[in-house]
Amino acid sequence: MTTSAPAPGAAPTKPVARTARARKLPVRLDRRYLPVLGTFVVLALMLIVGGTRYDNFLTPAVISNLFINNAHLIVLAVGMTFVILTGGIDLSVGSVLALSTVITAALLQAGLPVPVVLPLAVGAGTVIGLAHGVMIHYFQVQPFVATLAGMFLARGLCFLIAPESIAIDDPSFVALASWVQIFGEWRMTSSVLIALIVVGLGFLVLHFTRFGRTVYAIGGGEQSALLMGLPVARTKVLAYVVSGTCAGLGGLLFAMFSRSGYSLTGVAMELDAIAAVVIGGTLLTGGTGFVLGSVLGVLVLGLIQTIITFEGTLSSWWTKIVIGVLLLIFVALQRVLSLRRT
């Protein structure tokens, strides 16, 4: 018994059943988006539970206050996202934020005009971020140690400049801080507007520029990025410059919120920023994460505090407990995803 062979040059027949089955496969969601999707689900569930349990919870006033009270933390989280994406960490952002508030209050009290004070306050964070980047890349200092030194330096400078709290009563600064735009029951303050602009710029830089692609490449593997000829040194230094600048700007927003400069402002706020970034889906090992996910992480943290405030009977320490549980869950999720990818 013989079998007929296909004619020379004829295309081999494809298994029809396999092709049809391949066309019916559902679209798979990229694993990189799973942590962010989880953060969004958690945020949605919190809104649903809060809306069903408390009156006047899902109102424009509450949501607007959620952004107003956390505008400075949103800016800190954007800068922290850049650093963690490279596989680093920045422990100094809380102290740099305090230094920015103190510089702003002290210079305004000395009579300097607002257009001069604002760049100086933000620039202080830029200089400290530049120092971190240089120490980490060129002197091979561990990011934890380098930024820990920056944290102590910035906090010490705060007490050197202003041992006591300084009230801000400059008319121009107060007018800038008091600016508000009302859309029905929604409120948009100058701090929220600046924070949203920073988020938009961070999103564009990370996803549509060579610098942003290099940030992801360094987090994925610094040696591989070097072999590809990418500007690793410049990018790592600039990532810490971005974080320091965002910390300085965050201090300016906090000064607008509190109308004062205080040396003890922002204690442990760097931990809140790191928690927001991790809950937002950014891997602590670097290479995977999104600015918008970090914003969702900030909103989750703010919403936890809002729910506890509405509850009334719970201690404020429950905020830390819930944040700790969420961190453990999201770190475990990141670990599972990393093992599956490997």
From TrEMBL:
<feature type="transmembrane region" description="Helical">
    <location>
        <begin position="145"/>
        <end position="168"/>
    </location>
</feature>
<feature type="transmembrane region" description="Helical">
    <location>
        <begin position="316"/>
        <end position="337"/>
    </location>
</feature>
<protein>
    <submittedName>
        <fullName>Galactofuranose ABC transporter, permease protein YjfF</fullName>
    </submittedName>
</protein>
<feature type="transmembrane region" description="Helical">
    <location>
        <begin position="116"/>
        <end position="138"/>
    </location>
</feature>
<dbReference type="InterPro" id="IPR001851">
    <property type="entry name" value="ABC_transp_permease"/>
</dbReference>
<keyword id="KW-0472">Membrane</keyword>
<keyword id="KW-1003">Cell membrane</keyword>
<keyword id="KW-1133">Transmembrane helix</keyword>
<feature type="transmembrane region" description="Helical">
    <location>
        <begin position="66"/>
        <end position="85"/>
    </location>
</feature>
<feature type="transmembrane region" description="Helical">
    <location>
        <begin position="92"/>
        <end position="110"/>
    </location>
</feature>
<feature type="transmembrane region" description="Helical">
    <location>
        <begin position="188"/>
        <end position="208"/>
    </location>
</feature>
<keyword id="KW-0812">Transmembrane</keyword>
<feature type="transmembrane region" description="Helical">
    <location>
        <begin position="290"/>
        <end position="310"/>
    </location>
</feature>
<feature type="transmembrane region" description="Helical">
    <location>
        <begin position="237"/>
        <end position="257"/>
    </location>
</feature>
<dbReference type="Pfam" id="PF02653">
    <property type="entry name" value="BPD_transp_2"/>
</dbReference>
<feature type="transmembrane region" description="Helical">
    <location>
        <begin position="33"/>
        <end position="54"/>
    </location>
</feature>
